[in-house]
Please model this.
Amino acid sequence: VTPDGRVTYAALAAEVDRVAANLHRLGLRRGDHVALCMGNSVRWAVILFAAASLGAVTVPVNTRWRPAETAYALRQSGAAMLVTADRLLKVDFVAMLREVLPEIDAALPAARLPKLRTVIVDGADVPAGTIPGAELDRAAAPIADAADPGDVALIQYTSGTTSAPKGAMLTHDSMLRDAFHVGRRLGLRPGDRYLSQRPLFHVAGVT
Model:
């Protein structure tokens, strides 16, 4: 349940399958790292689950980071793909990305981020060297899941209180166990509603 509507598990699963197939069509493979920069939304969750089903690793981007911090995470994580909103509230992510990577107006990859092959932009402001987010919504047949429980599902950056942020690697197994036990400690039951006000780029929000 979100401010803009409700999504059933069945509809969510169908959307995840479609987006996963399109991410695969656009080059995302098992073990690849995909950075994700957008506000809390169903879209955020769909892309996370879609990447996870492919065996790819999601790298959440803190939407409050400045350009240098975003560049560091993209470089340090070895992100092969970035999916970003064009803007969120008053933050222009395309302008920030252009500051880090002016090559988005021409073609990728670029020397400064050689592993970043693909940038997908959700929204109206789509630079020439990037792919419109609508490409993720094409009709597509589901493809087989490629993930194992021990695979890394998420690279979660710490706050960087000492030196640069550290990328903590979280597996599918560890994230599911953590979420299960948090739910059990909270006494959640079928039909209960859980209000999450945390950003999805934060480990507490995404888990």
The CA atoms of residues 86 and 123 lie 5 Å apart. The chain has a mean pLDDT of 94. Helices lie at 9-25, 42-53, 67-77, 93-100, 172-186, 203-206. The first strand starts at residue 33 and ends at 37.
